[in-house]
Amino acid sequence: MSVKRIEPEEAQQLLESSEGYVYLDVRSPEEFAAGHVPGAINIPIMVRHPGGPGMVPNEHFIDQVESRLATDAKIIVGCLRGGRSLRAAQMMTACGFENVVDMRGGYDGELDPSGTVVFPGWARRGLPTTTG
User: Fold this and answer.
1) Quick check: pTM over 0.90?
2) How many whole angstroms separate alpha carbon 109 and alpha carbon 100?
């Protein structure tokens, strides 16, 4: 089953609607603290490697999501560029979450191989952000 992808403006409309959508940010706590969608919940899909540099999958991701959100909750998943959130949304859907959409472009935007933004994300579109 494929995950529906939406643009940042549609995500904003859903969050501002009376439909009860929540925004799940799957970036690291450091990335989240530097700037995020107001009201977002942060549960990282990747965590710092305990034995050295780099990131490893958060083996408790689904358990942590299940402890914070019901499987029938309306969830918009986002990250920095769109890759981690798409993977998280696919994992969540496979584990029984029924109303999950992925925000294309993430918080910053999709890049081409040369590092040029080819699809601006939430912040680059001037949508509301907060820190902390």
Assistant:
1) yes
2) 20
